[in-house]
């Protein structure tokens, strides 16, 4: 079972710090679709994924979503505790993409321990740098890559995550991940089908090996 002892920094904390964190952390079961965190006004606490899959995303003023990054087993989300990071505020939403189980670490306790623990401070900075790197990579994708390539990369990544080329995902959900309207996704998927890259059926996208040729072009 995934717990706080799974954190790479755990053994560098004192016994007192470990006890405090274990006593205060709360385990939550989150059915698919559960919203765990809603913007910078909601200081939920740090979220450690014990099982399942979460996604962190932002909302535009007109309600469009774009996925910033996913969180898998053993990953930890810092931005759900943005109140511990002075002058850094993000309107990030976090939801369960699959049925999940998480540990929520109280933000104030984590911040208090981090202020006196160099290993925990370094660990936190490493995670923050990694997340910023993912966001910058996403920005580069949006600004400079064609949508067909972005969509192809997303589908190939989904195949790796799910372990199958038969993807049960809607066009609307793909649009939410990529920040594009459903209609744009549908048009491109129909083009992919005409080119033999995918096979479309109701609620299902079968990714063909030929899709790799688009990424190699």
Tell me the layout of helices and strands.
Elements: H1 15-24, E1 26-30, E2 35-38, E3 46-51, E4 54-59, E5 65-71, E6 76-77, E7 92-96, E8 100-105, H2 107-114, H3 118-144, H4 147-162, E9 166-167, H5 171-178, H6 182-194, E10 198-201, E11 204-207, H7 211-216
Antiparallel strand pairs: 1-8, 2-7, 3-6, 3-8, 4-5, 4-7, 9-11, 10-11
Helix pairs in contact: 5-6
Report on the structure:
With about 220 residues, this protein is α+β, with helices and mostly antiparallel strands. The protein has two domains: about 5-145, Jelly Rolls (Sandwich), CATH 2.60.120.10; about 145-215, Winged helix-like DNA-binding domain superfamily/Winged helix DNA-binding domain (Arc Repressor Mutant, subunit A), CATH 1.10.10.10. The protein is built from seven helices and eleven strands. Strands 1-8-3-6 form a four-stranded antiparallel beta sheet. β10 (about 200) and β11 form a beta hairpin.
Number of strands: 11
Number of domains: 2
Taking all Cα atoms into account, the compactness measure Rg is 19 Å
Question: Tally the helices: what do you get?
Answer: 7
CATH C-level name of the largest domain: Mainly Beta
CATH architecture of the largest domain: Sandwich
CATH third-level topology of the largest domain? Jelly Rolls
Percent of residues in beta strands: 15-25%
What is the assigned CATH homologous superfamily of the largest domain? Jelly Rolls
Low confidence ranges: none
Structural class: alpha+beta
Mean pLDDT: 91
- How do the SSEs run, as a string of H and E? HEEEEEEEEHHHEHHEEH
Largest sheet: 4 strands, antiparallel
Instruction: Please state the overall shape, judged from the principal axes of the Cα atoms.
Output: elongated
Distance between the termini: 43 Å
Strand order of the largest sheet: 1-8-3-6
Helix content: 40-55%
């Amino acid at each position: 079972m995934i717990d706080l002892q799974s954190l790479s920094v755990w053994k560098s904390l004192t016994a007192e710090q470990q006890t405090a964190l274990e006593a205060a952390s709360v385990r939550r079961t989150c059915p698919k679709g559960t919203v765990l965190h809603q913007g910078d006004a909601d200081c939920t606490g740090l979220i450690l994924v014990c099982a399942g899959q979460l996604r962190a995303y932002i909302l535009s003023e007109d309600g469009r979503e774009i996925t910033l990054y996913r969180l898998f087993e053993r990953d930890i989300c810092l931005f759900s505790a943005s109140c511990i990071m002075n002058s850094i505020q993000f309107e990030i939403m976090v939801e369960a993409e699959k049925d999940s189980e998480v540990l929520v670490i109280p933000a104030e306790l984590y911040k208090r321990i981090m202020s006196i623990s160099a290993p925990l401070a370094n660990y936190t900075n490493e995670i923050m740098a990694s997340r910023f790197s993912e966001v910058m990579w996403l920005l580069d994708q949006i600004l400079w890559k064609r949508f067909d390539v972005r969509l192809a990369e997303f589908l190939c990544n989904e195949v790796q995550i799910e372990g199958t080329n038969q993807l049960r995902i809607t066009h609307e959900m793909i649009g939410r991940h990529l920040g594009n309207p459903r209609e744009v996704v549908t048009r491109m998927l129909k083009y992919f089908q005409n080119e033999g890259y995918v096979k479309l059926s109701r609620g299902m996208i079968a990714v063909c090996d030929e899709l790799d040729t688009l990424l190699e072009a």
